[in-house]
Amino acid sequence: MSFSSDIKQELNKTNSLANKENVKFELMGYCISGNTDIIKGKNIRFSTESDYNINRFSKLLSNLEINHNIDVNGKTFNIVTKAFDIHKLEYLEIKENEIYAKEKIKEIKDDDKKRAFIRGSFLGAGSINNPENSYHLEIVLSNENNLKVLQEILNEFDIHSKELATKNRYSVYIKEGEEISKLLALIGANKAVMQFEDIRIQKEMRGKVNRIVNCETANLNKTINAAIEQIAAIKKLQTDGRFNKLDDNLKEVAILRLENPDISLVELGKLLKEPVGKSGVNYRLKKIMEIANGK
User: Fold this and answer.
1) Hey, which of 34, 54, 164, 192 would disulfide with 140, CB 3.0 to 4.6 Å?
2) Which long-range contacts (CB under 8 A, 24 or more apart) does 277-281 make?
3) What are the tens digits of pLDDT across the range 72-119?
4) DSSP 8-state class, residue 85
């Protein structure tokens, strides 16, 4: 399966439907996506080639007791429900044969609802490249209004995206690895975040090595390989929420290592508020790695 498919499968498995309000907001995210349209002003249709997606959309509708039908046309699954039932989704409206997210959705204070809304839009018409090749996450929306609403909600979570708005296509997209990682974490794709970060760290460190390989020694390669392992351990602690539980001296050296991935332990020790030698820095970084690995 593709990287996108793996993420959507994870989101389907790990996000429960116990909270009906969150179900509504995830469904609204689906409804504003570019894969949802209005048929003759009477029916809402969602189309996808993903069986995970069609099953998720069906579960959302069933959870809210909205009747619907599913049919298959070649490789495409279609799910159809009456447009009248959109009244159960109070932050959406139908105008001129299109679905629009109402402006007041941005005023909601509940972050969980907004996360569900973003998750639904990604599941509905989102995609992400394999990070081994390039960083590119995109969510296609059905119209420019929905593009603006989603982008403003992403901004509230400090996730910066760009927009593409043409006559036939509206989408928000992200090409920065850090921002993509933040979005995946926000919508609950924790396994994908770990995989994405591992690939990103390796790519960034390989890039650094390639730029300096002609003027550095084997000792520097050893330093970089050690730094890769150290940074991976620090990122792991940040992702699973254990970073803030570290002692202050471990936090300090961890932050400096993230900011200075290619300097030696001696240089790193000089940057500390209370400088220590190579052995002191090495002890702290080993301790961080042990904690990250559960030792």
Assistant:
1) 34
2) 281/253
3) 988 999 999 988 777 778 899 988 888 999 989 988 999 999 999 999
4) G
